[in-house]
Amino acid sequence: MHRQTKLRLQLLLGTALLAAPVSAFAQTAPVQTAPTAASAEPAGLDDIVVTATKRETNLQDTPISISVVNAEALADRHVQSLMDLADGSVPSLRIATFEARQSALTIGIRGIVPNDANQPAREQGVGVYVDGVYLARQHGLAAALLDIERVEVLKGPQGTLFGRNTEGGALSLVTKKPTGVFGMRAIAGVGNLESYNSELHIDFPALGDFAFKVDGIISVQGPVTENILPGQTGFGEYDRRGLRFQTRWTPADNFTATLAADISKDKNTPFYSQLLNFNPNGLTVVPFTSATVPSGSIRALSPLVQVEGSNRMTQADIGVPQQFSVDDTRGMDLHLSYRPTDSLEIRSITAYRDLDVEQYDNIAGAHRPPVVGPNGRFSRYSLAGFWQHQFSQELQAVGSLGDSIDYVGGVFYFKETVSDDAATPSTNQWNADGTGYTILDPTPTIRGFRSLDRASTAHSESKAIYGQATWTPASMDALHLTVGGRYTWDDKDGKLEVVNNAATNLTFSSKVDRFDPLVTLAYDISNNINVYGKYSTGYRAGGASSRSLTYRSFDPEEVKAYEVGVKSDLFDRRVRLNAAVYAMDRTDSQIDFSLVTVQGASTRNTLETINAPGTTKIRGVELEGQFRATDNLTLSASYAYTDAKVPDTVNPFNGQVQQVFIAYTPENAGSVAADWNSPFMGATLKAHIDANYADAAHSFEQFAIKADSSFVVNARVAIADITTRDGGPLLEVALWSRNLLDETYVYRRDPSNRNTLGDYGNFNNPRTFGIELRASY
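Above: the chain's sequence. Below: its structure in token form.
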């Protein structure tokens, strides 16, 4: 670890120890109790309500390691999409782009990180839910967030209550619901990089038994790296728009039906992939104009190509055709709630979702293969389509038996059809000496004229029955024993229809049924200190790699998890400290190996997924805390330590046993934050600052090389509760900045082309800042 990195980590953790007991950062906004100068002691911290157990509970009474990011914390950090949580503000939650694409995300918790879950027959390891609806695909998750009330990050296997593919945890997004009381909130802002954002949220007055709510959002940013080809989009741009409508029908006190429909469009371009070095292996360099490149040699770069390993390029050196990738998502969900008695609620969640993706990623010009010489074609344009349809139905019974047993039971059904295709033509051609280039005929980039690398379709059907009950003995009401289990039937099949533009008939089929148990023993040492121990299992379904030439299949991976934790509110609830220590043993770990090959004027990325032998051991510690220092000042901190060791695995491309790793999982990660809230000239002054650190981590499972460590600071200052006139809106004016110190680091580094070019990678976003106006009735 470099000295500067060590100093940053020491500063971050030292601040955490002073600010609050070191913690896995609860991500909650400052307490909203009005400041009172006469108070001898500051007020205590507010309770945090979560729904991790399918019922509303106090976070401190819930024996699960969980972090919560509420609406105010999202605003303080200017979080516009899930991608913004990649700054490490929840240390055990790791989010990165797949390749450099903003249209698909890699989401991991506690070292369960599928690096390439963007295939029809491949599953994610962290379940993503919106209002209880499982989203099976990571595409489209960068789209704008529509009026989120809170984000709950549940860590460790959650299969008992949250369904399939939650071996690492669950990311549960809870939206604000219709109230039946008129209210309106409007947001408008502008910033650097040609950015602007606007939101409108309207709660309409009740109409009889019906309440209505409409949410609309627009979020736009210009390029991080300019494209020098006239008329083409730059790199790192986005234009995200979403609309959601909800209606709630309450014909009786014990029955509620809520229907929601949403649609969003996420137009984006990838981050620029740039060469970080050239010829790192010290091969013999032959001139660019050389007719051949002998073994042990490397072709010199064109004089037009820039190698910049320490700074993000603000202007590309090579102009390329580039248009927006487009993610279209839409869906409907119906929630029914019926309470036949005070001690029983029956729920139904019915949902249907569509996802259409058209991908256009020309992210590197001459900075990655194909590597060619005089008059050769270059610049790989990754073109892909991805189409997904899913239907899910869940029935739940949530109730109590007397005063000693609380239970949840249910059945779950899920069905999905997914298909994709991909092509990688080259768009540029060098002249004879590499001092210039031309743009090729665009016909091969048009759908219907493409030479397809692959095309595939997969179907999944999952059925489950689950239950969980918590027993609190009447004679020992401080003791809570929870026992649960889930039985799952997974049926999956797929077909790889095209390989290298030739029709094929490669198929796979899998049927798996399994039982996942959970046992938790919790004890209330006092009203404000609770301890627990937990055992659970989880799994990620198997599948087949559509990037494989043979449609190689792989088995499910399974995890056994052990966890002990403590949750405490101390010093009259002014200090909150939560801690968890866990161990996870994973078998049949799904490991990705990739090989880039040149085929004429295009390239192909072949990927094989292998089940690692033996047991992958993941061990970790998560700490979380808040400190209400004064009525005006709240300090927060968090820390996560993760140690992961995967057994050596055979590389299918060379037959050699090699060391493998877990991607995007730093050994140490931490976050600290401070929030100030005080009266100011008849209004309220609100200030927020947070700092987030993460060690360097691997970008790929097959390469030992790591990307860079990161240190990102975000800040926001606002004057809120500005009155306008009697009956007028309350106003808030805010200045915000993400990456305030303009820290530059490589979050993804690819060394696979060291013998033909060098390492290439992607940098984080630069400093962004802006001003925002909020009005609420």
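The first strand starts at residue 49 and ends at 50.
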